[in-house]
Design goal:
By secondary structure, the chain is of the alpha/beta class. It has helices at about 40-50, 65-75, 95-100, 115-125, 150-155, 165-175, 180-190, 225-240, 245-260, 270-280, and strands at about 10-15, 15-20, 35, 55-60, 75-85, 100-105, 130-135, 160-165, 195-200, 200-205, 210-215, 290. The strands form two sheets. The chain has a ten-stranded mixed sheet with strand order 5-4-1-6-7-8-9-10-11-12, sandwiched between helices. Helix 1 (about 40-50) crosses helix 8 (about 225-240). It is globular, with a radius of gyration of 18 Å. One of its GO terms (molecular function) is kinase activity.
């Protein structure tokens, strides 16, 4: 019954897997593995910041799947909807999807069936309740025919309240590539907040007229695969906290920078204390933009 639904801060839906990295710090290669998949990592990142999170995904019916299930649970993520691919499952829990304060979905789920229909069904069931974040997350290798992607992305964007992605992803979703034009097209499609990622930072535009270009937070170290997911988890935390755009994006930048500065095989998702400490040690930039 709807009355018994648990209200999560964040429910993410999408890929999960095991990432294998070449060791950089003398760690034996058998240990150079970690939780993979954007949806899973975003949920872990948000849980690390004290948010109640759950993931909707499927695993293999094998020891790898069991390991992923256990890793999520140990990371503070509710894994009740993480099921083996060979098992029979009930329909999506639409009550839980609507009750979550944030639903996080990635564009990768649109790349083929049956995940495409499931992703769009979840977005439609969600409606305009709460905050729905669509990480455009363009990976052409996931598509049998990348030219089929634009209409599916456009349909998904219509159900989102927040859309984010790099220029390649934004171009697939909107048909334009210039950053400001991308953001304006996303707003015109119905989102409340558009975040366009660029090498020099993030262009953020809100429907209320607020806009800013927020540069990245510098941190030593190489880029890490999970840095963008740390950004996403921190973004969810900031959205739930009601922060204004510049603070929101700067906080997310710092989370990503911390992950990028760490060995890839370490449990990298940062705590709130670690993020705040980095921000306190980093000079405050002068973002360009206007506030309504």
């Amino acid at each position: 019954m709807a009355e018994s639904v648990q209200h999560y801060d964040v429910i993410s839906m999408g890929r999960i897997g095991i990432d294998l990295y070449p060791p950089r710090t003398g760690t034996p290669s058998a240990q150079a593995a970690g939780l993979g998949g954007s949806a899973a990592n975003v949920a872990v990142a948000a849980a690390r910041l004290g948010r109640s999170t759950a993931v909707i995904t499927r695993t293999g019916a094998d020891p790898f799947g069991s390991h992923l299930h256990q890793t999520l649970t140990e990371s503070g993520v509710d894994s009740r909807w993480v099921t083996p691919s060979e098992s029979e499952t009930d329909a999506l829990d639409f009550f839980a999807l609507r009750a979550a304060r944030i639903l996080w979905i990635t564009g990768t789920g649109l790349s083929g069936e049956p995940t495409r229909s499931t992703t769009l069904a979840a977005l439609k069931a969600r409606g305009r309740t709460g905050t729905t974040v669509l990480d455009l997350h363009w990976r052409p290798a996931c598509w049998s025919d990348p030219q089929e992607a634009p209409p599916h992305y456009a349909e998904a964007v219509r159900h989102a309240t927040v859309a984010m992605g790099d220029l390649d992803a934004c171009e697939i979703a909107t048909g334009v590539r210039e950053p400001r034009a991308c953001a304006e097209a996303l707003l015109a499609a119905g989102v409340e907040l558009a975040l366009v990622k660029q090498p020099g930072g993030v262009l953020a535009m809100h429907r209320d007229g607020t806009e800013a270009e927020i540069p990245p937070v510098a941190a030593a170290g190489a880029d890490a695969p999970d840095a963008g997911d740390a950004f996403g988890g921190a973004l969810c935390h900031g959205l739930l906290s009601g922060w204004e755009v510049e603070r929101l994006v700067r906080y997310a930048h710092a989370a990503g920078a911390l992950v990028a500065s760490r060995p890839t095989e370490s449990p990298a998702m940062p705590t709130a204390t670690e993020i705040e400490d980095l921000l306190a040690r980093t000079p405050q930039p002068n973002p360009t933009g206007t506030t309504a």
